[in-house]
Amino acid sequence: MPEDAVAVSGRLSQGGDTRSGTGAAASGTTAGSDSGQTGKGLAGLVVSADDLAKKKAAMSSEDKMKLFSLLASKLPPEQLQRISALVEDGITADEMKQIDDILQKNLPKDDYKQILDIIQKY
Fold first, then answer.
1. N or C: which end of the chain has fewer CB atoms below 10 A?
2. Where are the alpha helices (DSSP H) in 1-122?
């Protein structure tokens, strides 16, 4: 399951804190590689599946465990599964917002900030 947490981190690191309006959706950032997604189209892709894999590989073991610990201990299992499904094949701007909404509704502000701090390193 740590892979799911890392995938979430890859998405959010591209989007930043959407509460402050500095997310990828606001900046228009899109991934440049086609990683085989179907049905979404690259125009709406914020982070490709390949980019998520690269971010996961770059993340330290300590950060992976901290991220996973925060998500697994605070999110209801169905919300963690929802996030996992959303990050499965890359992240669109809409999916990024859904993930951010889940995190903000379920995590204390300090935990949310810790997650952002970790993913913004990568």
1. N
2. 2-15, 24-27, 49-58, 61-74, 77-87, 93-106, 109-120
Q: How far apart are CA 103 and CA 75, in angstroms?
A: 8
CA 71/CA 51 separation, integer angstroms: 21
Determine the Cα–Cα distance for residues 111 and 67; give it in Å rounded to an integer.
Answer: 10
The string of pLDDT tens digits covering residues 70-95 is 999 999 999 999 999 999 989 999 99
In sequence order, which residues have a C-beta less than 8 Å from that of residue 39 and are 6 or more positions away? none
Using DSSP bridges, classify how beta strands 45-47 and 91-92 pair: parallel, antiparallel or unpaired: antiparallel
Rounded to two decimals, what is the model's pTM?
0.64
Q: What is the DSSP letter of 90?
A: B
